[in-house]
Design brief:
With 146 residues, the protein is mainly alpha-helical. It has a single domain, classed as Orthogonal Bundle (Arc Repressor Mutant, subunit A). The chain is built from 6 helices and 2 strands; from the N terminus they run ααααββαα. Strands 1-2 form a two-stranded antiparallel sheet. A hairpin with a 7-residue loop joins strand 1 and strand 2. Helix 2 packs across helix 3 and helix 3 crosses helix 4. The longest helix has 22 residues. It is globular and about 60 Å long. The model has no long low-confidence stretch (mean pLDDT 92).
C-alpha cells in the first residue's frame, strides 16, 4: 500500500487549520495579539476564568506556556494579576481596560474568520464535524503552544 498525502486525514486537518489560523493571525496581529493571547482574553473576559490553571485547561495548553503568555500580557497592560480569595497566596487574572478593548475589537475578526469556513457547511455538518473533532482530541495531553 502506498501512502497518499492528500488522502491523509492528518494532512487535511492540518491544511484546514492552517488556512483558518493564517486568516485569524493577520487580524490578531493588527491588534498586537497572538492566538494564545487571544484565547486568554476569551478565557478571562468571556468565560470568567481567573486562575491560570483553569485558563490553561480551557485553552488546551500547558501551564508553563500559559504562565509565559500571562507574564507578557501583564507587561503589555492587557491583564492584571490580583490577590485571590482566601489566604492571599492565590492570584487571579483580570482584564484591564486595554484587554477588554482588544477583546471587543477582536471578536468581529474571530467571528468572520469562523464564518468563512462555516458558511461552506450545513448546520448539521458543522455539528457533526465538531463532534468528530472533539472525539479525536478528547484524550490528548495539553499542547505546549497553539
Amino acid at each position: 500500500m502506498t501512502y497518499r498525502l492528500h488522502d491523509s486525514l492528518g494532512f487535511r486537518l492540518s491544511r484546514a487549520a492552517r488556512i483558518q489560523e493564517k486568516r485569524l493571525d493577520a487580524g490578531l496581529r493588527a491588534l498586537g495579539l497572538t492566538r494564545v493571547t487571544w484565547c486568554i482574553l476569551l478565557a478571562v473576559g468571556n468565560e470568567d476564568l481567573g486562575r491560570p490553571s483553569d485558563i490553561a485547561r480551557f485553552i488546551g495548553i500547558d501551564r508553563t506556556a500559559t504562565s509565559r503568555a500571562l507574564g507578557q500580557m501583564e507587561r503589555d497592560g492587557l491583564i492584571a494579576r490580583i490577590a485571590g480569595t482566601g489566604d492571599g497566596r492565590t492570584r487571579r487574572v483580570a482584564l484591564t481596560a486595554s484587554g477588554e478593548d482588544r477583546l471587543k475589537r477582536g471578536e468581529p475578526l474571530a467571528m468572520a474568520n469562523n464564518a468563512a469556513m462555516e458558511t461552506q457547511l450545513s448546520v448539521s455538518d458543522i455539528e457533526r464535524l465538531k463532534g468528530l473533532l472533539d472525539t479525536l482530541i478528547a484524550d490528548e495531553p495539553p499542547l505546549d503552544r497553539l
